[in-house]
Amino acid sequence: MDFATNHEGQLTIGGVAASQLARTFQTPLYVYDIGAIRQQIRAFKRVFEEADVSYAVSYASKAFATIAMYEVAKSEGAHVDVVSGGELYTAQAADFPMAAVSFHGNNKSKAELTQALDAGVGTIIVDNFHELDLLDDLLGDTVGQQDVLIRVAPGISAHTHAYDQTGQTDSKFGFDLASGQADEAAKRILADDHLNLLGIHAHIGSQIFEVAGFEAVTQKLLHVLNNWHQQFGFIPKVLNVGGGFGIAYTKQDDPLPPEAFVKAILATLKSQSQTLNWPLPAIWIEPGRSIVGPAGYSLYTVGSRKDVPGLRPYVAVDGGMGDNIRPALYQATYTAVLADQPNAAPAEHVHLVGKYCESGDILIDDAPLPTTTSGDVVVVFDTGAYGYSMASNYNRNPRPAVVFVENGQAQLVVTRETDADLIKNDLHYAAPTEQPAPAQTDATAATK
Ligand SMILES: Cc1ncc(COP(=O)(O)O)c(C=O)c1O
Ligand SMILES: N[C@@H](CCCC[NH3+])C(=O)O
């Protein structure tokens, strides 16, 4: 893993020593290097600009959605995609320009669609016929038009964890292509005065290392758009190929630079352009992990240790599956170092575990580390995507704080939850005064 150090050899993030951040903000702590986020957004934009192709880099905010993150995306001129009323609400609280928001979801509720229409989101990415019925209902008496994309299941499986595949035919997301459902949706939208069809969307999956799937999906979507042009006279404006560009979590991972995926998509677009007799559409991408993953670090403090002769020791830290569910959910692997001696040679291989009441609460199953003592700060790399956003209060542990660091300055952007936060929605139970006698079942009757 690449990391920066100061003259004392301590790991630094955005110019501040990780152990200093741990002292100032306590652990467990999520820390983001904002410079790295900006750099990645700019790298994506540069590819499009150099190729002179219209585009949108739409940050998939499910990877990490807080007011401050929407503010960073806004300052970089990125678009965002949201997948719930809650993400949209957070973007609104950040004063994110609604015209640059795409609203996703395979089961958007009427309330969420109302919220999206009231907020004026730029694009709704329509997933199914039920959603079209809801939109008809909601837009029925209005005069305005809502821009939409049709999400299709392109029938392309990405080489990634099964839970991270979304483009296969047997998927809950998007209109089926082969059976003609997507064509039917296009026909219906084009006939609808309240909906303005911009184009098509597909997302084949997440943590993908090969460009082949993106080349195939670009080709397939162009083919579908061409059919819609021939059948319905439709002139497509947008081709959204989703996100999913993989990142390295360990030395074993060897992904392409995220921009390489975009280059492959644009090369496919250019190679197909002669077959289209309509102008090239804008290309939209939806990277989440590749924008925030490598920029994020989790800081923990070492507590207890368990040594069993002949077995790998357990080193426990003050966080775990509540702040990073990915190892338990996807068998995801990570890399860790000690904050104050990141270059020290490993002295042992340990199970780096959390404090949750689950045997599966293992952050890194086989972590090579120098000998640790209680109080050491451990840094786990590349936790910026799907860490905080998938965090829970399991075992009633408060969720950690989030700190942004840029140009040597650290700023708290999400405060640490307190015990009081944990019970803020709890109500006392007032049992009815007359307690009904418990019903006797045959089984209990028989034992009497
Ligand atoms: C529709 C859609 N777009 C974009 C993404 C972002 O994917 P990633 O974080 O892998 O770039 C996802 C998540 O898998 C998604 O479902
Ligand atoms: N949450 C997944 C990625 C997003 C999948 C959503 N389509 C992960 O951590 O890998």
UniProtKB/TrEMBL annotation:
CDD domains: PLPDE_III_DapDC. Substrate binds at R289, R326, Y330, E358, Y386. The modification N6-(pyridoxal phosphate)lysine is found at K62. Its EC number is 4.1.1.20. Its cofactor is pyridoxal 5'-phosphate. Keywords: Amino-acid biosynthesis, Decarboxylase, Lyase, Lysine biosynthesis, Pyridoxal phosphate. GO terms for biological process: lysine biosynthetic process via diaminopimelate. The active site is at C357 (proton donor). Residues 30-384 form the Orn/DAP/Arg decarboxylase 2 C-terminal domain. Residues 36-292 form the Orn/DAP/Arg decarboxylase 2 N-terminal domain. It is an enzyme of class 4 (lyase). InterPro entries: Ala_racemase/Decarboxylase_C (IPR009006), DAP_deCOOHase_LysA (IPR002986), De-COase2_C (IPR022643), De-COase2_CS (IPR022657), De-COase2_N (IPR022644), Orn/DAP/Arg_de-COase (IPR000183), PLP-binding_barrel (IPR029066). Pyridoxal 5'-phosphate binds at G244, E286, P287, G288, R289, Y386. It comes from the Bacteria. Gene3D superfamilies: Alanine racemase, Lyase, Ornithine Decarboxylase, Chain A, domain 1. The keyword Lyase applies. Residues 430-448 have a biased composition (Low complexity). Pathway: Amino-acid biosynthesis; L-lysine biosynthesis via DAP pathway; L-lysine from DL-2,6-diaminopimelate: step 1/1. Residues 429-448 are annotated as: Disordered. Coiled coil: none annotated. Belongs to the Orn/Lys/Arg decarboxylase class-II family. LysA subfamily. Specifically catalyzes the decarboxylation of meso-diaminopimelate (meso-DAP) to L-lysine. Homodimer. This is Diaminopimelate decarboxylase.
